[in-house]
Amino acid sequence: MIPMLGEEEAQAAADAVRSGWVAQGPRVARFEKEFAATVGAGHGVAVSSCTTGLHLALVLLSLDPGDEVIVPSLSFIATANAVRYVGATPVFADVDLATGNLTVETIEAVRTPRTRAIIAVHQGGVPFDTVALRKAAEDWGVALVEDAACAAGSTAYGQPAGTGAAVAAWSFHPRKVLTTGEGGMVTVDDAETAVRLRRLREHGMNVSAADRHKSSQPVLEAYLETAYNYRMTDIQAAVGLVQLGRLAGLVSQRRELAARYHELLSGIDGLVPVRDPAHGTTNYQSFWVLIDPEFRTGRDEVLAELARRGVSARRGIMAAHLEPAYADVTPAPLPVTERITRDSLILPLHHKITDDDQKLIVGILRELA
């Protein structure tokens, strides 16, 4: 991945520096409003990362030790870590082979009376079935937190992936389609929830720093609860506002490049590329390919040969339950998760990649087949 950053972003960041307001301020407020409108949410609350956004989303639920939160193991480890931050227990569920996402069936297989919440991930930008999972969570009486780290620009049932989410957390890391360098956002529809999230990200203060500085009179703030320093800077938000204006074009370009990959890969047996699910469209934040058993070269050997030929591919999505940090967890069987993490790789896809680059990459894969 190469982030699409240009002169407009550089100028926006410089303007923020010259303004003298570089901490959380008016640009953050504007970015929150415009991002929420773009993803179909009532309110946006900018934070320092998607991980801190997930943490705050779980803080809202007042979870207790022993409470269980179902998560996919097939996700960046931050998804599971956020559950431990609040003292709850992550329970790993398997995923669908085609999308890499949780389903009602995989969640039901590990749900218990102690299940208080689910974190469902729009994996690699592929939207999960929002209608099915939201209805199931409501029927079960558990909260659904949406990890939309990769999903800016993806759609589900004809709407932006975040539309209708009770709470969703987003990432603006450089590997994402929309980046602010680091940073994230929490989107919600409920206004009171947004007020509390803003308080939680700023040490629990009942008056924001921006509002204090705008006042012509001294403001004596109060700290209403133990909270955190999870703020975004105005410099980051300035970049984010430019990136937001590029989002539709970036997603369109990525989908064109993905279509070219599909065309080039179509004649190679044993390679299954990620595609749109029936219920939506992906932004192709990651273009992963699953290697079937009939492909004569193993995944690690494929990665090694691509690297030898100057191609920067990566292993597929990690499985948290296989990492040392979760060695103390004995999950239910996760055969699909383990197959995807063992047998998949992510191919380069970014705005600078050329048709010749894609032909070279697929040509190497064809040789290895």
From TrEMBL:
Superkingdom: Bacteria
EC number: 2.6.1.-
Enzyme class: transferase
Cofactor(s) in the UniProt record: pyridoxal 5'-phosphate
Molecular function terms from GO: transaminase activity
Keywords: Aminotransferase, Pyridoxal phosphate, Transferase
Pfam families: DegT_DnrJ_EryC1
Family membership noted in the UniProt record: Belongs to the DegT/DnrJ/EryC1 family.
PANTHER family, per database record: DTDP-4-AMINO-4,6-DIDEOXYGALACTOSE TRANSAMINASE, TRANSAMINASE
Name by which UniProt lists this protein: DegT/DnrJ/EryC1/StrS family aminotransferase
Organism listed in the record: Actinoplanes oblitus
